[in-house]
Amino acid sequence: MQWLDRLRDKNLTQLLLRAALALVFLYASISSFMHPDDWLGYLPQFARDHFNAHLLLHFFSVVEMAVALWLIWGKYVQWAALAAAALLAGIIVSNFSLFLITFRDAALMICALALFFSKQA
Q1: Do the beta carbons of residue 14 and residue 118 sit within 8 Å?
Q2: Between the CA of residue 63 and those of 2, 30, 66, 69, what are the distances in Å?
Q3: How far apart are the C-alpha atoms of 80 and 68, rounded to whole Å?
């Protein structure tokens, strides 16, 4: 199984974690631009009370896109992973009443933390 050892040497694990996290952030970002009404309900009520919800959603989508591109770029991966974990933690905390849906974000946050703590990051 030399091919498997070569893949490990190239840190396939880190690449897969980066790709998975980037995919999630890219999908959410693009989808929220295309179908904003599907995503507005995930903005915390206190934020919707003080800001224009569509504008806030677009701002957050740009931030998600930036984190996704940062993960794809592959430079300063450790800090991109930490930013991803922080975004996911914020989503979980601000939508805790929707944990039936956001429990997936908890798993993704743990993946981001694994990437942050990996030796090659």
Answers
A1: yes
A2: 40, 12, 5, 10
A3: 8
